[in-house]
Amino acid sequence: MGQRYWVIGGEYRDCAFSEIEPGTERICGPFGDELKARMEWQRLTFRDKCAATERYTIAMEPSAARA
Fold first, then answer.
1. pLDDT in tens, 43-52
2. 18 — phi, psi (to 5°)?
3. 40 near 7, Cβ under 8 Å?
4. Per-residue confidence at 6, pLDDT binned at 50, 70, 90?
5. How many DSSP H helices and E strands does the chain contain?
6. Residue 66 belongs to a domain
7. What gap in Å lies between CA 37 and CA 32, rounded to an integer?
8. What's residue 67's pLDDT?
9. Per-residue pLDDT averaged across 1-12, rounded?
10. Domain that holds residue 45
């Protein structure tokens, strides 16, 4: 099994991005390749003309070690 990618984020209380607004959290995925995750990141990031307090990032889940 390869890498898995997740797009995570939401709306934050202010532009310091230290605390996410409860109820706005988003987790999208898993995506089997980075390109699909980047496409989802782009869709979320730019859908509302770059809301100043919304932020999303791509997280990579390491592949499980085989025994």
1. 998 886 668 8
2. -95, -20
3. yes
4. very high
5. 1, 3
6. no
7. 8
8. 47
9. 91
10. 4-60
